[in-house]
Design brief:
Blueprint lengths: L9 H36 L8 H12 L5 H18 L3 H17 L1
Helix pairs in contact: 1-4, 2-3, 2-4, 3-4
Length: 109
């Protein structure tokens, strides 16, 4: 009686399992790609234009000093403080990321 229902045939069940397995493989592959990109971005931030260096920190600080008081300036100052802390702890990727955020906060307002 079960074999008369097309949705319950062994071929259909096997096809459904194969499709679910394929979807799971695609999901795992996408998750792996995102994880790899997430790991590379902070490390790459130190090598980009917003790299963590004394001159870049000084340039960004002077840009922030000329900003009008407000939310953007406070946020940029916090990012600069986090960048300096990361630089002192040898975390150049994190430093570059915070410095970049400070630069963008300075340009936005």
């Amino acid at each position: 009686m079960i074999s008369q229902i097309p949705a319950m045939t062994p071929a259909f069940v096997q096809e459904k399992q194969k499709m679910e397995s394929n979807m799971l493989n695609k999901l795992l592959g996408a998750a792996a790609m995102v994880a790899a990109a997430y790991a590379v971005v902070p490390a790459n931030a130190a090598k980009m234009g917003g790299g963590c260096s004394g001159p870049n920190l000084a340039k960004t600080e002077s840009m922030i000093d000329t900003m009008a008081d407000g939310e953007g300036k406070i946020m940029a100052q916090k990012e600069i403080a986090m960048a300096q802390d990361a630089m002192l702890n040898g975390k150049m990727g994190a430093c570059g990321m915070h410095l970049s955020k400070a630069m963008h906060a300075g340009m936005a307002k």
